[in-house]
Amino acid sequence: MKYILVTGGVISGIGKGIIASSVGTILKSCGLHVTAIKIDPYINIDAGTFSPYEHVVPHITDAIQEWVMKQARISVDDDGVEPQVCVIELGGTVGDIESMPFIEAFRQFQFKVKRENFCNIHVSLIPQPNTTGEQKTKPTQNSVRELRGLGLSPDLIMCRCTTPLETAVKEKISMFCHVEPTQVICVHDVASIYRVPLLLEEQGVVSYFCQRLNLHVETRPRKMLTKWKEMADRSDRLLEHVSIALVGKYTKLSDSYTSVIKALEHSALAINHKLEVKYIDSADLESTTLQDEPVKYHEAWQKLCSSDGVLVPGGFGVRGTEGKMLAINWARKQNKPFLDANSTEFNPESKHPVVIDMPEHNPGQMGGTMRLGKRRTIFKSNNSVMRRLYGGLEYVEERHRHRFEVNPELKHHFETKGLQFVGQDEEGERMEIIELEGHNYFVGVQYHPEFTSRPIKPSPPYFGLLLAAVGKLQSYLAKGCRLSPR
């Protein structure tokens, strides 16, 4: 097993995640089996459950190392083959107090797995003040010095900068950071993040890993990287636009929906459209806002109605108020007996609880009650749009994260009105996928399909939304779920 540790300095949000995923992409293009680990350096321990014989601090570094080695060997490919390379992104900034146990763990780890199996990439910032236009190396020097003082020596220093790194600046970093000039990699701002793997490959990163970690890669042309370049080129040439209204309760911080936005971007790129996301606070669409702030209310509805498609993150009865409201509001509109339709989270005494706590958990108990991880969803209809978008599979396995679910006792009431539960769990007890009959594309899922979306392989539910938004869904389905070559 080869390990590549990615650390960061100077500021948070420097781009460690993009560097880590880019390194993984170019190594996969070489025919290697690659996995990845993301570490957020926080230690959350409930001291109230400690045994008097337990002391976390002396053993935490061993626990971190054991966990990394265990996770690194879990296959992430369809063929089930054990990974050959593990790219580890260590969150935070070198010097932060919360990352210290992890830095120390990896200082020890490099000796445990031997030098030829461990490599450190340090991502740093090269600021360029507008007053002088000069690229400054001092922050990087200080960051590398601190990292080396903690026992880790960077093998590659990846410099985030606005413009390409000047030769003199690269040589200065090489001299004061104790690396060869070829080990200083420029990662300047590019038109699309999809160009970053190509940028690294052009600067000989693969050749360095082959020499440093004794990797044996395929010598034939890398088909995956060729596809990646084609995708990056298409991304730069997009002319047509598609707008999606994203309705949620955390829209003031777009990072809250990062995975969702990326899944939308993947799908938009696949149909050669540039994505425009219109963020709408769900509270602004409520009748109370009309009374209190009518301008905000009408602006929110105008944005919603002028969009090509609408997305409500959270599915149809899962995580967050906005997801539950889809099922609840639909039920309220059907007939008089369902006017009090609600969620047990909002009203435990509701006579028609459309959304309920999962029965195996205690209502109101929050800690450790999530239904997490990959779960299987069985398709119950041969003609459903979602099944066709998934390629006609009998079942799909997607990642879940929810505490509430649609009440299965009300299933028949929904289906008699055209809201079909076309996907259920293996036991047939949990409603996983809904589709509204006669609608262009009104679907909801219990799981989080954005977590498995990839640039070259977009998530089917999101892909269907973008196809419907540009009026191409029916032709796509009629052609056997194939896009035209153009």
From TrEMBL:
GO terms for biological process: 'de novo' CTP biosynthetic process; pyrimidine nucleobase biosynthetic process. Residues 253-339, 361-460 form the Glutamine amidotransferase domain. Its EC number is 6.3.4.2. GO terms for cellular component: cytoophidium; cytoplasm. Residues 2-55, 56-215 form the CTP synthase N-terminal domain. It catalyses: UTP + L-glutamine + ATP + H2O = CTP + L-glutamate + ADP + phosphate + 2 H(+). Keywords: ATP-binding, Glutamine amidotransferase, Ligase, Nucleotide-binding, Pyrimidine biosynthesis. Pathway: Pyrimidine metabolism; CTP biosynthesis via de novo pathway; CTP from UDP: step 2/2. GO terms for molecular function: ATP binding; CTP synthase activity; identical protein binding. Belongs to the CTP synthase family. Catalyzes the ATP-dependent amination of UTP to CTP with either L-glutamine or ammonia as the source of nitrogen. This is CTP synthase.
